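Known limitations

Files may contain more than one protein. Parsers should not assume a single record per file. Below, a two-record file is shown to illustrate correct handling: read the sequence, read the token line, then continue until end of file.
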Amino acid sequence: MPSKRTYQDKCTHFLNHTSSLTSNHYLNAKHKVQIPEPLFNPSIPKTIHFLHYNKNLENPKYLCAIESAAAKNPLHNVIIHVMNTTSFSLSLQLWRSNLPTNLSDRINVIEINWGTTFRGTPFESWFNRQEYVKSKWIEQNLGNAFRLAHLWKHGGVYLDLDIVSINPVSGMGRSVGMQDSKRLNNAYLSFPSGDAFLEEAMHEFVSGWRGYRWGHQGPELVTRRDICDGLNIAPTVRFFPVKYGERAWLFDPWYQQCDLLAKFADESIGLHWWNKRTAGAKVSNETAVAIVMKRITIAAPSQSMMLPTPRKIKALHLLLAAATLMSLFSIVSLLSLPPQVDTSLAAAATSIRAKFDLVLKCDHYIDRASHPSTFLLNATSTSNIKRPSSQTASIPKNIFFVHYNDHLQNPKYLCAIESAARQNPSHMITIHAANHWTFVKAIGKWKAALPSHMQNRIRVVSLNWEQAMTNTPLELWFKEERYKESKWIEQNLGNAYRLAVLYKSGGVYFDLDILSVNPVGGMGRSIVMQDSTRMNNAFFSMQKRDPFVWKLMEEFVGTFQGYTWGYNGPDMVTRTYTKTCGASEPHNSCEGLHVAPLARMFPIQYEQRGDLYDLFNAQCDNAVKFADEAIGVHYWNKRTQHTGIGDKTLLGVMMQLACPVVFETFGGNQLGVNENGIVGSAEYYRVEKQDWL
């Protein structure tokens, strides 16, 4: 028997481990030891799904699962699928209002539609024939089917509402969890959309349907379908560190279960606490866990039934406390500590203000740029929105760029990357680079100088043309080397590559000559206008396996012309939209697709590009338009890449504010942004004409 001090040390270890809002303790599906960094599987959307099929929130302890999942996975959206969004959302109001913004903004409530979810899956006829009513547990079995169908269509992570998150899920990959030595369990699932295992599980569900046998359509189902290569089977300790037969341990006094608590901290992603058997757990009014229950049930009228007569604190209660009190601690710390200041950005703003006698409109732009990620726009309205709509939750929080040159010859491109990372703190930023290690080396000093919350979200992956285009309409076009029938081979490969990656992974694509000036989170599923008649492929925001992206690839291949500039880029998007969505009977892929106004990405038209070279304080009308109506500003790099930029010009000032660490790392001279650069639109057009002769 270990000494009492040993137990105390282990309990202290657990409390220390769970005392902060987030966790850097990453685990994968195989090993018991911590892995050094999250291993994001790009094919699995960063979305965590919960399912609540009762009409009202009768058990506010379920909010512990939701809050802890959002806190421990800061790069994931959290979606709660409910029967009645209005009543459920009302029951969450006060709880949500007390959450930190970076948690609350990532939690969305979506109404369940069984028929829509099952349509086009093996469940469709089973549901239409109402086979589900032949069951002792109708809603539970509908829920078992729903999670399979929804993940098959959209991908992501599913967690039961009686799983409290202890560590991030990021390293788990494509996996299911062991419940015990013999059975898997469907309380946790992590899959890309269209996964073969999920499809087999749905067929097994329908063909082996037994509605009157508990567990047959759940844990036993996924156990029967454990057949697919590349599927990770997570050990029991990841989600079931306390097995069903051991559940009484959760009700021992916490100081008698320090070994167990330490194991949770070091080896578990979450704890399944067997709510069906522990729903009546009581908590003392005189313990810390009572504060937690008041915290997470603050909006629930049934709160009092959760707080009966005093009892000893239990291991389960301590875990619930640690999982949700972290939000209280974070709120207290936010109130008591001064806000973090981005010194690089603050210094850039101070320097620019010192150079000009600014009018209010220009100062408004500097103020907005000094507070990134605070002004949210959608694809249609020109006013600030409070939070993204539920429809945006289907867009994975990935922003990707493509760099197809072997070397980073133009460090100004890093401005696009840094500004996107600043404006979108919940998004992963991925650069697909032709020469992976050369690019990593070239950006090493810059990346090391970034704030840690940005460093950790920026990654470089190898650009692999063939792998990206396999299993898409582009595959044969690439294998037959039709891309060589072009004056601009790499550009057209890049046009194709972005579509393939967008289709397979979903998310947001930006060209490397777009400076982000506001967050992209409200844009939803959208493309953007370049001018009054044409769209552009410099920006896309799409869900994974989006049918409209498939249409874009088909149009790209079917009409490819390698010797006409823009034909396979902006013109291709315009043609596809016109054919697909402008027809008298639009294709179903057009439903919910927004065409954002040119102010979102192209507030400066091609014919107006010289305005970017006017002095900043002479372009205040444009500056305020960028601040209030743009997500990004496309600055036409093909025309400006060989042109020095005056550091007091509109473009020069925008760059200094968008990517201050780029300027600190490379310096204005290397970037070509300095006092000797071009000033004035007339001078710009003169130099441009000379360069292009």
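...continuing to the second record:
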Amino acid sequence: MKKTNLLFIKYLIIFSTFGYSQNINDIFPDFDKSGMHSDILYSPSSISNINDLKNKTHDLYSFYQVYKSIAFSDFQQRLGNLDIIKDVAMTQLLSTNIPLALIYSEYETFNDVAKNNQLIYKNSDNKFQRIQSNLDIFEHHQIFSAAALKPIQRGSEVTFNLATTLFFNTSNKTVNLLEIDFGDGVGYRTIQLDEDYNVVYETEGLKQISFKITLNNGDINEVVSSLKVIYSNEELNEKFNQDIVGFTSGTTDPPYIQPYNEYPFKGWGEMEIFYSADNILD
């Protein structure tokens, strides 16, 4: 195998695992971006490839994958830390409020010409550079991902909101129209940022939420995400006479089991109360 190809594979490993560098600028300082249409240079790997997410149903975790990949690969570093978004998701985990998040991005990857023609090399400072050439070494991509910031929603009467701080567009295009079909039978609604949208699901189950954006050049991009909805304790009691009580361990210390190499944490849980046939708690 050519030495250059070995270097390229090593670069892919470093690039895709994010383990050795803070962002793309650490790998390609002062990189010549001639031929790129964006400022984002992404490298897919066998364990993480956002190119494979196109035309697939997204969810909370695929959104995280896209966001983190674009954030790392952006020479301008326009996206904040993913933990900020995760904190938003955590604050609404047990509520009927469902924060939404959306990202549209255009980016480049190296094509086979770059990989096979010794056009990428490592310099004396252990940094990757490109050899000057008239060959086009990039493939051009776009990706659209959106999802509810919850893996599961307890309660069928919910409120969706897409905050300005969770709407990300790294392209030079503007979004002229945003529409969402919440999967409640109403169809697409025109959405304004920072506004609440109340939705009532008639049944529990896996819901498909469809997002559609119209760009200023007329292009329309669509993506479908999934959200699992289950009945709340109150709804279960009302519909099926199941008496389920939620509780937290915030005021009660967990058992002392450290001698058994276990480390308990305070958290949240629930229990169901079963009555006898004569509706008496035995």
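Parsers that stop after the first record will miss the second one. For reference, the second record is described as follows. Residues 3-17 form the longest helix (15 residues).
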